[in-house]
Specification:
Layout lengths: L9 E5 L2 H4 L14 H7 L10 H14 L4 E5 L2 H4 L11 H16 L3 E7 L5 H5 L6 H17 L5 E6 L1 H10 L11 H24 L5 E7 L3 E3 L4 H24 L4 H13 L8 H11 L4 E5 L4 E4 L6 E3 L10 E4 L3 E3 L17 H13 L5 E6 L18 H19 L4 E6 L19 E3 L6 E3 L1 H10 L4
The protein binds 6-O-phosphono-beta-D-galactopyranose.
Length: 469
């Protein structure tokens, strides 16, 4: 379908520190919110992941050979400040590791796009309430400031990855620590506080005149009503406000529009929940909204929603048993399956048109939006390496990427300013709530031997990279 990439297109793949590095106890790294939780749960361990902490030269070389020109990487806060609190004595080993890593990226002509927080709050700050505690915001700003000063080889910064996923998984679906269920107050407050944290960092980045660009990453799941009934359409609006609109408004407008506040209020009332906004928050958001240099959009799937007033219920399909997911949110709406839309084994809808809709919507609703990069998109699958074959056959992934890329380029041709694509993920990685059997990589990783093998999608990726000239 896609025959040619636009000239100068950013063509990359994504990683996140905790999902790739492994070595969570090495060189003075401090604990994060996941270490003890995963140990107690006993299902899967973040070690060795793909041992990127040691094997990054090999992976970056492969990425370069595949024609990639960019890579998404995150810094593990607790490799630099092991107990989360920012002091005058950063952990040298951690600082040096990231310098080595960034230099290796540049050596391989991979422009690093660096995220400061990717689902990995330091354990100390997590225990004090994580983003619900405003002390976390202050420490985050100091940590960001340190990184901007130290890592001058980085030109592209993202503050926080996927605020809504974190809030949903921590406080609504209970799949990330602290595993709360439908605590609507905490979920919406965390979203707001993270927006303020992002905004403070952007304002500091600009006030101090750091070079380079800064932005935020949102995962957007467009919401469609199950039927054309008024009730279902309203449910879709409510869900969209909670998942997408609140965050897009806070980032790109710098305030929550009347319509957004109205919808959020309805959700709060239905769930006896509260949101606290300090008067100064809005000034901070407003100032930052005009200073974002770029916007990262992660896109995986859409949602089809029907109106629902019953009790809230959720079941997370974390093992790939197709059809087992349940999600019903009191007073907001329940997920229903649209039989016309195919799904993965983890019940994620495959709906490339949704990505086109997302891009068009941002350009339409937020005309002052900064340049967009698709910072994640990809397909998880159960895969096993067959040593009698040269490459792992993942034609479904090629098809998936191809269709999503076509949707991006269509929006781009219609004027949406989208300049790049990062596949999730570069290599197979550790998945937060699914462990190791949900593989996304261009590069297959044998987690026992740490051998790397190429998938067919990697060759397809490479062939397309050559069309850019
Ligand atoms: C995004 C995260 C990634 C990654 C991806 C796939 O939400 O930013 O860290 O994990 O989704 O999700 P999963 O691993 O749950 O399949």
């Amino acid at each position: 379908r896609v025959k040619k990439l636009p000239k100068g297109f950013v063509w990359g793949a994504a990683t996140a520190a905790y999902q790739v590095e492994g070595n969570t106890n090495l060189d003075g790294k401090g604990k994060i919110m996941w270490d003890d939780y995963l140990k107690n749960q006993g299902n899967f361990s973040p070690n060795p992941a793909c041992d990127f902490y040691h094997r990054y030269p090999e992976d970056l070389k492969i990425a370069h050979n595949l024609g990639l020109n960019a890579i998404r990487i995150s810094i593990a806060w607790t490799r630099i400040f092991p107990n989360g609190y920012v002091t005058d004595e950063p952990n040298e080993a951690g600082v040096k590791y990231y310098h080595r890593l960034f230099h290796e990226c540049l050596k391989n002509n991979l422009v690093p796009y660096v995220t400061l927080h990717h689902f990995d709050s330091p354990k100390t700050l997590f225990d004090q309430g994580d983003w619900l505690n405003r002390e976390m915001i202050d420490e985050f700003v100091k940590y960001a400031d340190f990184c901007f000063q130290e890592f001058v080889e980085v030109d592209n910064w993202f503050t926080i990855n996927e605020l809504i996923s974190l809030a949903m998984c921590q406080y609504i679906q209970g799949t990330f620590p602290p595993n709360k269920l439908f605590d609507v107050s905490d979920a919406i407050q965390a979203q707001h506080n993270e927006l303020v944290a992002h905004a403070k960092v952007v304002n500091l980045f600009k006030a101090k005149g750091y070079k380079g660009r800064i932005g935020l990453i949102h995962v957007i799941q467009p919401v469609y009503p199950a039927t054309n009934s008024e009730a279902d359409r309203h449910a879709a609006d409510l869900r969209d406000a909670f998942m997408n609109r609140f965050l897009l408004d806070g980032t790109l407008l710098g305030f929550y529009s009347d319509r957004t506040r109205h919808l959020i209020k309805e959700i709060l009332v239905a769930n006896n929940a509260e949101l606290h906004i300090l008067p100064e928050d809005l000034e901070i958001l407003k100032q930052a909204s005009k200073q974002n240099d770029m916007l990262g959009i992660n896109y995986y799937q859409n949602q089809t929603v029907a109106s629902y007033d019953g009790p809230s219920e959720t079941y997370h399909n974390g093992n790939g048993k197709k059809g087992s997911s349940v999600f019903a949110f009191h007073g907001v709406g329940k997920d229903v399956r649209n039989p016309a839309i195919p799904t993965t084994d983890w019940d994620w809808n495959i709906y490339p048109e949704g990505l086109y809709d997302v891009l068009k919507r941002i350009a339409h609703d937020y005309p002052d939006y900064p340049v967009i990069y698709i910072t994640e998109n990809g397909m998880g699958a159960k895969e096993a390496w067959d040593s009698s074959k040269e490459y792992l056959d993942d034609n479904y992934r090629i098809d998936f990427i191809d269709q999503h890329l076509a949707a991006i380029l269509k929006a781009r041709n219609e004027g949406v300013n989208v300049q790049g694509y990062f596949l999730w993920s570069l290599q197979d990685q550790f998945s937060w709530s699914n462990g190791y059997n949900k593989r996304y990589g261009l590069i297959y990783v044998d987690f026992a031997s740490q051998d790397r093998h190429l998938k067919r999608s990697a060759l397809w990726f490479k062939a397309l990279s050559k069309t850019m000239k």
